[in-house]
Amino acid sequence: MTVSQTFFFGCLSFIIGVAFASFWRIGQIGILAVFICGIFLVSVFWSRKQIAAAGALFLCAAFGLWVYEAAERTHADNELQKFYGEDVIFQAKVVKEPIVRANNTQVTVKPDFVSSGKILITFDPAEKLSYGDRVVLTGTLREPESFDDFDYAAFLAKDGVYALMEKPGVEIKERGAYEHAGERAMAAIFNLKAEFREVLEKHLSPRFSSVMVEMLLGEKYVMGEGLAQDLNVTGLRHIIAISGAHIAILTMYLMPLLIWLGLWRQQAFYVTLALVVFYVVLTGLQPSAVRSGLMGGMFLLGQHVGRQYVALRALIFAATAMLLLNPFLLARDVGFQLSFLAVLGMIVLLPTVLSFLPKKIPASLSLGGPARELLAMTLAAQVFTLPILIWDFGQVSLVSVITNILIVPVIPLLMGLGFLLMIGGLLHPVGFLLAFPVGVLVQYILWVVDFFADLPFAAAHTENFPLFWLILFYTFVAFFWWKFRKKQESLVQW
């Protein structure tokens, strides 16, 4: 193997190690056994390059196992657990943008009395706190508990949150206690984001604005539970949530549009990349948005250089870097799973899916965009994300292919008009003009969602989906892709 291939498979082995540790208790003895096996193969069979390379992969897998186990120990030994059930008074700082819901506001704070670990605070909606505020809190710390087969404690732990506190007493010590330029920049982004949200809510009806706020600004929980459930039933949740597939599809429109406007391909690539960065920043640099932007950027890179294997290697490297920083993402973050698998599906299955589609598909189906490529991307992403959707949400949409064909083509246009509305809406006459086409497109999306969600056969429930079938599905897809790739004379070259 070349150096590039060795590095790629080393990263892949690291991810496999993290995956095994995420789902099965390996323990230090197991990690040591894998490590010793790798050392043995490398040292004894050094002259036989293939066996030595296999030993190096064992070492990479052992490193992945160790990274996850080390993170687990940090979680188990967190300092906040000593105070569970205790009444405490402490100073803390708001370290994330508050999440405002209809019935409460959730704020993540970093307490001063521990060196690591954060606390998730639930307030009444009337309580107004902002990023960077220093506060004194009085209340009872509570340990996160699992419910309804959902490991809530593990979900919070992936972000370093180890305790909860409900409706504490609050005293604001200092507004905007920013310690460095980075925090001041984040505060400015959050302020701009709040202004954009106000524009959307002013010019659109509450139901329409909730869709646009979540789609463009990445704010969760602003939609009603009914609409969120209908999006899940129809297989359209990904069009609202920021994901790698979402950003990849957006770039498919931007590149041809910018070239049509007169830019060279190289210029169009950098402008598109800059717009993706702007989109991620606009969400407040949420971890989910950063991951989605990074993974969507990997697909854009592959499209730019014309070789999807470059995108595949870059995607695996990006996933390795993210898991190295936070190994809990792989098993505990659905957004990471869906973004990674959707982009992976686009990279490895796009040529295969394109070969099965008619050579000509009317561009009118995608509002003038690359209809055939867009449909192929959507189907490739759906194939790879379907099992995870079944595994995590316990249901499979039976109408998702149809609804995605009807909805995905309008998303780039809607997002473009939405961005113009947010910016132009600061000038009131322009805002009212732009609100009309945005409203028409959102109305069309909601009509499709409502119509298909009401069908009795829209979704099938799949409770207790076995992990074995999940692994078997991806093994089958990998085998099918490998056979087809071999038959087509290595469509993806190494």
UniProtKB/TrEMBL annotation:
Record-level GO cellular component terms: plasma membrane
Asked if Cell membrane is a keyword of the record, the answer is yes
Broad class of where this protein is predominantly found: membrane
Q: How does it sit in the membrane?
A: Multi-pass membrane protein
Return the Pfam families for the record: Competence, DUF4131
Domain (DUF4131): give its ranges.
Answer: 31-168
Positions of transmembrane segments = 6-24, 29-46, 52-71, 239-263, 269-290, 310-330, 336-354, 374-391, 397-423, 430-447, 467-484
Domain of life of the source: Bacteria
Q: Where in the cell is it found?
A: Cell membrane
Every copy of the ComEC/Rec2-related protein domain together lies at: 215-485
UniProt keyword annotations, A-Z: Cell membrane, Membrane, Transmembrane, Transmembrane helix
Q: Does the keyword Isomerase apply?
A: no
Protein name, please? ComEC/Rec2-related protein domain-containing protein
The protein's organism comes out as Candidatus Wildermuthbacteria bacterium RIFCSPHIGHO2_01_FULL_48_27b
